[in-house]
Amino acid sequence: MVFVQAKNLRDRRVLMVMLMMMLSSCMISDRGSPASVMNMIEASDTIRATGYAVINLQASDLPEQRRLLAIRASRLDAYRSLAEQVYGQFIDSNSTVNDLVLSNDSFRARVQGVIYGAELESITPVGADTYEVTLSLRRSVVNDLRRLYMQYSRELRA
């Protein structure tokens, strides 16, 4: 923190005005609010997702097949990322407290949804041992997917 000491009345007034301006700008800013986040998301025409996979971790003895499996795994990771952006993540957490001390804290994240209409933008080797796949999804398709999901959810509850 910075502390400034004003020696005369003019300096005090200037500091007070600056402080008021800073505080008022913080109060009127809606950056980070759910509405502004949705506006930023909806401003783009497409959403993009990138997935990664390491070649040497793939289960095969043949280097060519490991490379193809890494491309496939990175593509699935990109689809998972698209599903997170379209439907969100389900977070399940569990905490255990013994004698007022946290003894266990765990959480799991899950994504579930259907993605169609994704376009492959790129398959790129990253370094010597990793592949990166980038997919994109048009905003109109995202809106269709969300609408279908909401309709399906209502039918399940009925």
Task: Report what the structure shows.
This protein has one domain (45-157). Helix content is 47%, strand content 28%. The chain contains four helices and five strands; from the N terminus they run ααβαββββα. It has helices spanning 9-28, 34-43, 63-87, 139-157, and strands spanning 46-54, 90-98, 101-110, 119-126, 130-138. The chain has a three-stranded antiparallel sheet. The protein is extended. The mean pLDDT is 81.
What features would you highlight for this structure?
extended; alpha+beta; 158 residues; 47% helix
Q: How many domains?
A: 1
Main sheet characteristics: 3 strands, antiparallel
Helix content: 40-55%
| Fraction of residues in β-strands | 25-35%
Structural class: alpha+beta
Number of strands: 5
**Separation of termini?**
56 Å
H/E element sequence: HHEHEEEEH
Total helical segments = 4
Spatial strand arrangement across the major sheet: 1-5-4
Shape: extended
Mean pLDDT: 81
Computed over alpha carbons, the radius of gyration is 25 Å
Catalogue the unreliable spans: none
